[in-house]
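Run log, item B.
One chain of 111 residues. Sequence copied directly from the ordering sheet:
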Amino acid sequence: MRDFTLETLKQAITTLGITVLMADPRMLLVFAKTTSPESDSLHSLRDIRGVGALIPKETLDILKPHLHPDCIVSQVYAATETGTISALPYNYRKEHDPASVGFQWPGTTIK
């Protein structure tokens, strides 16, 4: 995309009804901080996968009000163009545990 901006990505999410987003924690924080509370621009998302670094609890706290209640936010590991090997769904944990790598995806091998 030649003229990529955060706003064009938000427009694409809204207009196209994008349901899955892989993004680094900094991008997720900027999304949350630049989205007005009354906006539903992120409501089509149902699966947000954090890549590159752990998603800080503070970022999750800021992001959560902007998301659909059914949206699952997870930290994925070994992310490539073809997939990932494990995930830590933050929604299913009472405590934020940055030391955990979550559960391993079926059909994958970790060596």
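Observations after the first pass:
- The chain has a mean pLDDT of 76.
- The chain has one domain: 6-91.
Flagged for discussion on Thursday.
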